[in-house]
Amino acid sequence: LYMAFTLTWIGHATLALETGGYKLLVDPYLSHNPAAKVKSDEVEADYILVTHGHGDHIGDTVEIAQRTGATAISNAEISGWLRKKGVKVHAQHLGGGFNHPFGYLKLTLALHGSGLPDGSYGGNPAGLLLTTNDDDKIYMAGDTGLFGDMQLIGEEGLTLAVIPIGDNYTMGPNDALRAVKMLTPQHVIPVHYNTFDLIAQDADAWAERVTAETDAKVHLIQPGEQFVYP
Ligand code: NI
Ligand code: MN
Q1: Is 176 in a helix, a strand, or coil?
Q2: Which of 11, 32, 72, 205 is packed most tightly, with the most Cβ within 10 A?
Q3: If you compute the radius of gyration of the chain from its CA atoms, what whole number of angstroms results?
């Protein structure tokens, strides 16, 4: 059976995505992540995608990149910060896409902040829109509030949307439901919840509402579990 892509939710907003023989890590927050069952010295990566500078997203990027030789992809400001630490980088910015070996990756708008752990300026936060080499479209929203231009992202025709539902720092369940209505993905996976008490959510209740009010299929995978497509 041919797998177009496999997405593992490591926990919080950390994802491992395998597609076309490439291993991508997204927002590799491992050492201080209470939900992660793997350690930062155990993960493999060809590319590390970083949505924004906050500690629970840039996480262990430097250590993993130095050990694996992975190329980090982020906005220009975070890429510059990583380059100074000896990390191989590919800088992009909002609205810009590039044909990487694993697919066409575009940075999208995110309504959030992006300060780096040492107080450095991290530019604007981003979401990620990946068109795989099989033409599947995976939108990983990063940390964001609801914004109307999610409609534009939805117009691209999403196979899968990975969106935060935790509230407090990002969209909560109500706005995440509205996001699904704008994004109209075939499949949706909620993340950035239940890592800490502050972002505890009833994902089952949210999934019931999404199922009742949209055509999206919700996948409530647990940290460490995979979504395999198709
Ligand atoms: Ni954040
Ligand atoms: Mn976060």
Answers
A1: helix
A2: 72
A3: 16
Tell me the residues surrounding ligand 1 (ion) with CB < 5 Å.
Answer: 54, 143
Separation of 52 CA from ligand 2 center, angstroms?
Answer: 9
Sign of the dihedral through C-alpha 26, 219, 176, 170:
negative
Q: How far is the CA of 2 from the centre of ligand 2 (A)?
A: 33
Instruction: Output the CA angle 109-110-114, nearest 5 degrees.
Output: 120
Instruction: Burial-class residue 155 by CB neighbours within 10 Å (0-12, 13-18, 19+).
Output: exposed
Comparing CA positions, the residue from 106, 192, 193, 109 lying closest to residue 151 is 109
Task: Count CA within 13 A, CB hemisphere, residue 124.
Answer: 12
pLDDT, tens digit, 9 for 90 and up, residues 173-197: 999 999 999 999 999 999 999 999 9
Which ligand number lies closest to the CA of residue 167? Answer: 2
- Give distance in angstroms: CA of 151 to centre of ligand 2: 23
On the 0-12 / 13-18 / 19+ scale of CB atoms within 10 A, 104 is middle
CB within 8 Å of 68: residues ≥ 6 apart? 43, 44, 45, 46
